[in-house]
Amino acid sequence: HPKWLTATVLERFMPILPGFILSLGLTACVSLGAWLLRSPRLAMAGFLVFPLLFLTLNFESVSRHAGIKSARPIFEQLPSTLPVDTEFACLACMPHGLPFYLGRELTVFTEDGRELTSNYVLFSIKTGKPWSERLVPLDRYPGYLAERRHPIFLMARTERMKEVTAWASGREIVLLPGDYIGVLLERRER
Asked: In whole angstroms, what is the distance from residue 143 CA to residue 35 CA?
């Protein structure tokens, strides 16, 4: 099944499913009537009825969809006890919008930048230009984390649980919305 089709998504969208089915059903009936009667006016109504019904019967689906794509739920569930100088780092992922809610940049450990949505950054990486200091090649992340002198909150998708658990060394792993996990790696003393 698609990666986005999680239990959370199903739970959020099940209440609006009847309205969605009704919208599609009425659109199909109007469109079928337009075809049988060969009526251009009814055909135009068929084009208009779905968006009108969808937005009136299922208006809350727009905010539900925005909530699923937003990083706000992740931000709201971050531990409140994180030190002020904590660096946020993402292991082969990038919760879009999280830098906005945090009010600071993230460090992204990436193979080729595909976690980012900026075509400019992706093009720069592919053409061999120097990477931003906030983009760290994936094969260098162990050294980056080993040499840290400040706390780092390491985030990843749950599929990388083994790697995060190894870095956690017994610390609590936080389950975050959107299939993310995180752990606070304390500063290393020299």
From this structure: 66
